[in-house]
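Memo to structure team: turn this sequence into structure tokens by end of day. - J.P.
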Amino acid sequence: MEISIVPIGTGKEFLAIDSRQLLHHINALVTEHSLIITDRKYSIAGEAKWKKESADEIDHGRKLIIAAFVGGKLAGLCEARRGRGKERFNLFFGMSVAEKYRHHGIGDEMLSLAIDEGKRRFDSKNIYITYHGDNKVARKMYESFGFEEIARLPKYMFHYGEFVDRVIMQLKR
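Reply from structure team:
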């Protein structure tokens, strides 16, 4: 399996990623009811709007995206976002890996690169990541990087018929 983990340095680089692959990635995650923040499929127009907004945020130094490709196909995304205003010294992470590419180390590689690049690009005092309270795989991975749970928001998110906790972890190393 040929895996390529790529930091996206400019908005132009992000806009060059095949929109169909981005749309398929997010919509496949929604279809499988994966433990991500969104529960609605994107339309072509919605994806184009998100892609342009993300490219602008990359160019203005507010976002970093790491993309994973397997054999040229998009396998995962890891996003680091700077906080706004008084939260600008904080960095927030989110990530997803397509179902067929999980358990091959792609998430670990993306997160490792995202943390290193995030520290290099942003003047961050704190680094945070969140996950659905039921996602034991995510928790184990994040703990292996030095994240520790600092808050749990009980029954915070509605996930396909039930309310689940949202857990906030902070990087301690």
